[in-house]
Design goal:
- The protein is mainly α and 96 residues long.
- The protein has a domain of 58 residues.
- Helix content is 45%, strand content 0%.
- The protein has four helices and no strands.
- The longest helix has 17 residues.
- The radius of gyration is 15 Å and the shape is globular.
Length: 96
């Protein structure tokens, strides 16, 4: 997830699992945060939410978000959505 929105951009590597892997030192810029929020929540975060994220999570000296920050923000967003009934767990496949 992070790699899709981070700077520098990550190119898809041919592999059996097709994961994007960010480079060391990759970060999420304000523009990347807006793209991520739009894709995951349908709209960008309010300025108040952005300020809360920047105050609550790790960022670079330039105010860009680190990988750990993005993971924590995603967990927080999922918890809020689940508490409001917007997020449900995916059904498990019947492997019998």
């Amino acid at each position: 997830m992070f790699a899709k929105y981070c700077t520098p951009l990550v190119e898809m590597q041919e592999s059996p699992i097709n994961f994007l892997e960010p480079s060391p030192g990759a970060y999420l810029s304000p523009e990347g945060l807006d793209r991520w929020a739009t894709d995951t929540n349908g709209e960008i975060f309010s300025e108040e939410t952005k300020e809360e994220i920047l105050e609550s999570f790790d960022s670079t000296d330039n105010g860009d978000l680190t990988y750990v920050t993005v993971l924590n923000a995603k967990r927080k967003t999922d918890a809020v959505q689940q508490s409001k009934g917007f997020l449900t767990t995916l059904p498990t496949a019947n492997l019998e």
